[in-house]
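Weekly sync, protein design subgroup
Attendees: M.S., D.O., the rotation student, P.L. (late)

Item 1: inverse folding check
M.S. brought a backbone from last month's batch and wanted to see whether the design step gives back something sensible before we order anything. D.O. pointed out we never logged the input encoding, so this time it goes straight into the notes. Structure tokens as presented (399 positions):
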């Protein structure tokens, strides 16, 4: 533990002092896809801070990750593993990266990500994208784990809003399932990476109720206090009076309640609403709103009621029907492996009578399946033995 704390202090100090100082003033690799004006010293300082922060008091109920810290963590050795793997891509190097990605905690992986840049002046995920192809499913999967959360999520949001049209589902998903503190780090990294503010890009891609509500969620901290039973009942009445209980609709009241109250309070309000008015808030928003506003409010309600069930349902959608949504599986399984994948697995099994592992094996194959299973089953005491056993039968070497 003392060694780990020393490492955290050391690498945080490195990035506070400035990455360029470590590299003797060398610039960023000319092949990087980031804007020329990116201040990498400031950006990696943010990442070092974000990876070791305490979650804010507005965070939802903490879940259980499947991936846990390695007791033998040695970032210098992990850098050597990465260097070896990069020379072997595509091929055996993938297995080494899968093992590293699923047997190190998010803090440990963030240290490696930051140290890789300090040593090489290259961004790890960009090196992987160059070797594997930025659109390949295995790259998207490794990126979900090897990139610090704020870096990864900023990329997801930029992807959702870049180009013609907006991926509203991805945009709503990321913003409604991250805490206020997380969103502040994401917004800072977003601006550093892409040269525009998150709120400006939201405003440029959304309008009306959706624009107002998304920006309020990103910029306004929710109340810290859990409401009293009387206040819960009052809020349920206010929601009813703003929608079903009147002609027209009070959009400002809906936005105020959904963006300012804690998720714990809102969950209680939703239950009180059902008990009082014999209908659900989900039904209420479905009847009161349409199109994009309806989609956003529906996402919010589902997330507030049960975040694990929300992601379990997304996983089911990712693999149901014709084709597989591989980028979705990266967000809904791999990006949750450090958060609440244990609860997601339980919710999926309870509703679908099939485990997540069984479900993905029917739709995914190859290296990507190996990565998904390694993350899904990382909390199993036998998973490491299983991976070693697979070395003898799979073309991808994991050790």
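Designed sequence read out in the meeting:
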């Amino acid at each position: 533990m003392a060694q780990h704390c020393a490492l955290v202090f050391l690498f945080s100090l490195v990035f506070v002092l400035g990455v360029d100082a470590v590299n003797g003033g060398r610039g960023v690799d000319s092949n990087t896809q980031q804007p020329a004006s990116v201040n990498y010293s400031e950006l990696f300082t943010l990442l070092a801070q974000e990876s070791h922060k305490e979650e804010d008091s507005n965070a939802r109920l903490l879940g259980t990750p499947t991936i846990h810290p390695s007791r033998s963590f040695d970032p210098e050795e992990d850098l050597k593993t990465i260097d070896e793997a990069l020379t072997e891509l595509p091929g055996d190097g993938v297995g080494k990266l899968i093992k590293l990605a699923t047997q190190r905690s998010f803090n440990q992986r963030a240290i490696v990500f930051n140290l890789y840049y300090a040593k090489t002046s290259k961004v790890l995920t960009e090196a992987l994208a160059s070797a594997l192809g930025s659109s390949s499913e295995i790259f998207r999967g490794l990126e979900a784990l090897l990139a610090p959360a704020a870096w990864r999520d900023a990329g997801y949001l930029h992807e959702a809003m870049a180009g013609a049209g907006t991926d509203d589902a991805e945009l709503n998903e990321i913003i409604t399932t991250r805490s206020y503190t997380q969103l502040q780090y994401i917004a800072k990294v977003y601006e550093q990476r892409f040269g525009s503010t998150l709120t400006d890009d939201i405003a440029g891609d959304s309008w009306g109720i959706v624009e107002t509500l998304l920006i309020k969620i990103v910029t306004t901290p929710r109340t810290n206090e859990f409401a009293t039973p009387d206040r819960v009942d009052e809020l349920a009445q206010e929601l009813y009076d703003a929608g079903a209980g009147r002609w027209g609709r009070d959009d400002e009241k809906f936005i105020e309640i959904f963006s300012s109250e804690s998720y714990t309070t809102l969950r209680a309000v939703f239950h009180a609403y059902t008990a009082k008015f014999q209908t659900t808030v989900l039904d209420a928003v479905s009847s009161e709103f349409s199109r994009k506003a309806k989609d956003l409010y529906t996402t919010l309600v589902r997330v507030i009621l049960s975040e694990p069930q929300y992601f379990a349902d997304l996983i089911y959608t990712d693999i149901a029907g014709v084709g597989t949504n591989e980028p979705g599986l990266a967000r809904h399984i791999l990006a949750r492996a450090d958060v609440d994948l244990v609860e997601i697995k339980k919710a999926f099994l309870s509703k679908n009578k099939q485990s997540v592992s069984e479900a993905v094996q029917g739709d995914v194959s190859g290296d990507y399946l190996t990565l998904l299973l390694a993350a899904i089953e990382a909390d199993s005491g036998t998973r490491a033995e299983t991976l070693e056993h697979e070395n003898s039968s799979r073309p991808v070497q994991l050790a």
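Discussion: The first helix runs from residue 2 to 17. The chain is about 65% helix and 0% strand.
Action: P.L. to compare against the previous round before Friday.
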